[in-house]
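Hi there, hope your week has been kind to you so far. Thanks so much in advance, here it is.
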Amino acid sequence: MTEEVKDLLTHRVKDNPFCKVMRMEVTHVEEGKLTMMVDICEDCHTNIYGYVHGGVFSGMADTACGVCCFTTGVRVITLDMNLNYIKNVRAGTRVFCYAEILQKGNKIMRTHCRIEDGEGTLLVDGNLSFYIIGEEDI
């Protein structure tokens, strides 16, 4: 994968309105793998108990795995998402979502992700499936 393609995918995330609101940032990209990072903020990411809202983790997983699919040159839409919430964190924590492609078929892609804090503690483990809707112009 060229640096130009890596830059294109990174900028697509930066320009995505949802990613802007959620303050998501790509920290690593290669074909079939992607890492995203979010610094958890009280004003944006937490629930009424002061912990990360589950929707932040699911949005992170969906975005990271979807962009991971783009690295293979296809456009996708989410079919299903199965997340196991293992542990939670509070504001001030940096979290990382590590996404990878498990299988690419003619119409379906299967991915895996794990979300960890900066210490490597597993917070969320998930599997997501995507439907391939066409080629991605990368």
User: Anything to note?
Assistant: The chain has a mean pLDDT of 94. The CA atoms of residues 51 and 90 lie 5 Å apart. The chain is about 30% helix and 45% strand.
